[in-house]
Amino acid sequence: MNHVTRRGVLRRDSYKCAYCDKPATTIDHVIPRCKGGENSWENLVAACFPCNSRKADKTLAQLGWRLRVTPRCPRSNALFLTGLEHMEADWGQYLYAG
Fold first, then answer.
1. Consecutive sets of 10 residues in the chain, 98 residues long: mean pLDDT of each?
2. CA distances (Å), origin 69, targets 21, 65, 93, 96, 97
3. Cα torsion for 97, 3, 26, 86, to the nearest 10°?
């Protein structure tokens, strides 16, 4: 489970830039791919376009930047249950079965 997606990273980070806290529309590799960074939950963060452009293929140390939060793999259903407040009551038994 927990296959990383652009949409999932944006949701996990509440559509807020990991660098400046402004609204995010892109994702960024904390450790750039050209420096061995992977496409993983722990290496991807939501970013606003200006921060993503400025960071480019640099590391946080090179820029003197810090992340607002530590990127982690989300809990299993956390990303998929967001926005389901108005679902049909009968569906709850299938979504919350443990």
1. 88 97 98 97 98 97 96 73 52 52
2. 10, 12, 33, 28, 30
3. -20
